[in-house]
Every structure is written in structure tokens, then in C-alpha cells.
Sequence to fold (504 residues):
Amino acid sequence: MCQLLGMNANTPTNVMFSFTGLATRAQEHKDGFGIGFFEDRGVRLFVDAQSARSSPVAALIKTWPIRSSQVIAHIRKATQGQVALENTHPFQRELWGRYWVMAHNGNLVDFHPRLHGAFRPVGDTDSERAFCWLMQELAKSHASVPSVEELSRTLAELCPRLHRHGTFNMLLSNGQALWAHCSTHLHWVVREHPFRPVSLKDEDLRVDFAQHTTPHDRVALVATEPLTRDEAWTAMRPGELRVFVEGLPRPV
Amino acid sequence: MCQLLGMNANTPTNVMFSFTGLATRAQEHKDGFGIGFFEDRGVRLFVDAQSARSSPVAALIKTWPIRSSQVIAHIRKATQGQVALENTHPFQRELWGRYWVMAHNGNLVDFHPRLHGAFRPVGDTDSERAFCWLMQELAKSHASVPSVEELSRTLAELCPRLHRHGTFNMLLSNGQALWAHCSTHLHWVVREHPFRPVSLKDEDLRVDFAQHTTPHDRVALVATEPLTRDEAWTAMRPGELRVFVEGLPRPV
Fold:
């Protein structure tokens, strides 16, 4: 199974610690990785068809404190589509003058939607087809970039139509919010004041966030499986869609 | 003035040497840099609002031999739009299931085209507006991805309409070919068998390409100003559009 990681924060935050935890899980997920960072409206998207354990890009990300308020990362274990750069998540498109970044974990069976709009897959994965379809349907539903609430309502109508085709664990962001849809495995946690030391589950690594934060900072993390040992992660339910804004989860 | 660098090769080639030459020129062009590498249909796009002289991403690219057959790099000196990630070239969009990457050097005055199609700027530069307009007009001209020849003919009609608004030195690629349009400054050179040692103009750096190539390799480079001392670069004429395929220039 692929591994997803999403971050949504009320202040630009660096995700090195959590990404290191995710990359450790790349041993069994050697078919590429990717990570997208929003900086305001701009996006840095790093993709590599190599494993996150050996990729020079992953090494850069683990040491370079990129500060972002929306991050989506993905470690791939190919189910559909060959191992190639164009099949590596997250995918990116532009809609209404905003970049959109999406990563998917799961497998959509016999999912070949009619893509009659402006979004076509470049690679040959079910995930990119699902992303193009979502973008097309969002574009049909709103004339210009709607509020986070309106977008959430539209996504709440669209996601079940993908979930019906199989497993659709997904993270999506347009730089304003992070949407998470769970089919099988997604967990979230909010880090806020008072911050405490936290240990990664898969690495002998411990960070005291109190030393790196201010009392106003708030960070929501979403991951396939809990990344840390000493935090209370909440499991999402099958079919649940949640939107994270300013580091806080909102039900949809 | 911004600096452009494009590469088109008949075999995946690493561009570290030429990028090092370009990055040296970043002293006066400190408003960000970016570089896009096609690997087949996939793209790696690195952008940074920092100078290419200090950016950790630029350091990675100078040491990591990414092999690509189409590369577009840009070092920015802001004329329109603030220094921000979303204003950093190259820009990327998807059309007909292919990624398109574009970088621009120049300044388009009073250029506010009617963008009624599926491509909207995320940032606020004349360059991204020009790219969105080009994508929109290409999308209107062809139903699906046309041949390089047909695309070249359409671009030959569209580029003069941008050139009319000011300086439009531009590099564009969809992974199949590299298009270069010159308003004021663009030079190209082809490296092919027999390969010889070459020295960078701006750095004390010399590479003997004979040691890194096979007799079949052919690489075309396009740059704002010649990057090397010992090669015969051809200056493009104002209004000239050229397409490079498999390392060879073709007139349009």
C-alpha cells in the first residue's frame, strides 16, 4: 500500500521530521515518491521515480527546512501504471488561477471516466484519471474559485463516486485548505500549544516541538498510519471527508 | 535581463555543465530561478524564489546528474510581478495529456489578453499571462496533440502577436521538441560527434564531452548569451522561431 502524508498549518511550518518518518517506510514502497509544498499560491513539487530511501531529492528535503502551510507527500507502491516519473504522485493542475495538488492511495477498479473537459492524464494511473475527473467536475460546478465551504460540499458529492470504484484514500490541496478522503486508512492529529517532545514510530528520532514553535502555531497532520508513538491520532472512517484549515479539522 | 537556457537532445543528457554556467550569471539575477526536466512524458520542475547562487535546489542540480532530453531553465530578474514562488519561471500546464513548460525573457507591455479558456495565471507576471494565452490558442487550434510540424506552424502564427507587445524571448517544450522564439537575444549551438573539450565563459570550468558521449549523441543548446568560449553559437534574428528536435534545429 502507498503511504500518504498531508500537513495543514496556520503558519509556515517545516515538515522534515514527519517526512523522515514517512521516507523510512519507503523500504517496501520503492516505486517512487513525491512531495508538494505550497508557499502562498506557489507550489514546489518534487517527484522522483526512485525510492525515497535512496533519492537525492528526498535527501535534500530531509535536510532543507522548507516552510509551508500545505504539504502533500506520497510514497508509491505501484498498483496501476508502470514506474515512471509521469505516474509519480502528487499530481498538479491549475484551475481558476490556483494550483491543485493531489495524491491517492488505493486502487480504483474499472475507472475510466469520460474526460471531456480541460484535464487529461499524462501518465496511465487510475489516480491521475481520478484527479482529472475531480478537476473537471469542480470546474463544471463553480465558475470561479469558490469558498472552502462550497468546495467541501462539492467534494462531498464527488468523492463517493470515486470511493464506489475501490479504495480512494486521498489528499487534495489548493493552497487554502487540505482535504482528506478516507476509504480504508487515514489518521490525523493536531499539534498545538502546549507542544511536547514527540518520537517517530519508525526511526530513532525525537523532536521537542516546544523548542521550534510559538504558542500560536497549530499544525494538522494526516497520514496513512500514525507516524509518532506518543500522540493520539484519530482514525478516519470509511467514506469520511474532512477539510483542514489553519491547522484545524472541520467536518464536511 | 533574465537568462534563458534550453536543451534538446537525441538521448537523455545531463545539463549540469551548462546550468553551472547559467547559475554563475545569477549574481545580477537574484529574483529566483527554475529548471524543468522532461523524462519522457514526465516533468521534474524545480523553482526557487532565491538566487541560483545560494539556493539549495540549485546546489542539488549542479551535483546530481539528471538525464533529460528536454530542459528549460530560467534565471529571473523581475520586471513585472513580485519576487514569489508563483512568479518563478518556468511555468507548467497540461494540455492534451502532455505537460508543457515555458520560460520567458523580456517584458510585454500592456498585455492583458482575454483568457476565456482553461488556462489562468496563478501569479501576476506578463510571462505567465503569455503562456496561458499560448496554451489557450493552441487548444483552440487543434483537437488533440498535433505533430511537431503542425504545432510549429501554429506557434509561428501566435508568437508575432506576443512579440508585438514587447520583448518576447521564449523557450517552450512539451517533451517532444523545444521551441525557441527570439525578440532580442537568443543563441544556439549543436554539439555532436566529434565532441571536443569546451570551456565555460563565466567559470573556470572545462569539460571534455568526448569522454561523456557516444558518437550518436547530439545536443542542441539555446541560451540568452553564448555560455562557452570555444564553440560557434548562432545568434537568432528578431522574430525568428526555431524548433529543435532530436538535437537538431529546424527552421519554422
